[in-house]
Amino acid sequence: MPNDTNTTIADTVRQAAHPLRGDASDYDPLMDWVGNARLVLLGEATHGTHEFYAQRAEITQRLIQEKGFTAVAVEADFPDGYRVNRFVRGMGEDSTPEEALRGFQKFPTWMWRNTDVVHFVGWLRQYNEALVADRLKVGFYGLDLYSLYASMGEVLKYLDQVDPEAAQRARDRYACFEQFEQDSQEYGFAASFDLEASCRDETVNQLRDLQQQTANYLQSDGQMAADEFFYAEQNARLVKNAEEYYRSMFQDRSDSWKLRDRHMAETLEQLMAHLDRQGNPSKIVVWEHNSHLGDARATDLGQVGEWNVGQLVRERYGNEAILVGFTTYTGTVTAASTWGDLPQLKLVNPALPDSYEALFHDTGLPRFLLNLRDQNQAVTELSQIRLERAIGVIYRPETERSSHYFYARLPDQFDAVIHIDKTQAVQPLDLAPPETGDVPETFPSAL
Q: What pTM did the predictor assign?
């Protein structure tokens, strides 16, 4: 039962909230708040909730159609995301959204191989096909860095086409990784204890070598040449950053979190610069977990020195960035019990008392949007530190408090929040066991 204090605050929040009724005007206020912002960061409280994907897609479609956004950047590996990018822009060999998403073979496949993403990718392709010839097509990009070996392969593939001699130099440098048989964690373990095993210098030199040849590789006019060079350069940058990331996993886990988020923020900045060179200033929608997109300075993680994408973006772009969080009280979620397991349909426990989710449940509103930039009583009341839930690809309801909650000040963490009181699990495309891939530093919560 809600306590009296929660009931009073819930009444205040209900009066300030914008109910979401499932019609075309639901996000009119959000479009007004976005204004001329260049970045809109859309979070999620879990990695397996249908409504979070569906509402992000709806908001993103409006941002593309009404505000001129030209890219979607997501919490996914760069090569896999770029395969989707080629598809939605009418390039590559894939003929359907399902085929374009086949690059996502590692656990957790359901994050991007699900029916909601299929529908959104299909919409992007249709939208781009309907554009007039001189309009910039909307792209789809991954920001993450788990693709160490795949990205090395993409660098070599590009150089084989444009500069065979440089390709051989790159092979010689990347040969440093061969003894680890494409096991990034084995490399990180060895390099963290034996500096001679480190391939750091080789990755730095390869990125520098590629960048020094920019003018030569871009002699061919046309946007395609610029796009392919950007793809190769970013993969080389990813290899450098991933090498540092895997080395850090066996030294200081907080450092590995910061390295990962710094890489994602850096990739976003590089993507903006690349798109800026194509004409008008770029405008990008970002899809990641709340834990990455909410300003870390407003959480207990920030108090111990960690940062994240949301903090770095705010520090770099200020009011040009809008951070939107999502919350839910109960329902179902697609998640695994341990890393590498098959996804399961899991019941989400009702949120703990003294959490933001429980307070929002007490409003009695099934869905609502709340502006956290407003200087009103609701925002003032919400500024008190409370529990907030985070479910990644692993969900362990039996250890709910310790595994899935942290403290936060929501109005400092986000510019707006969307609460959907009861949610349902996302529907995966695959039922077969995924490739396990590398266990991230966020294990067991896996955010």
A: 0.94
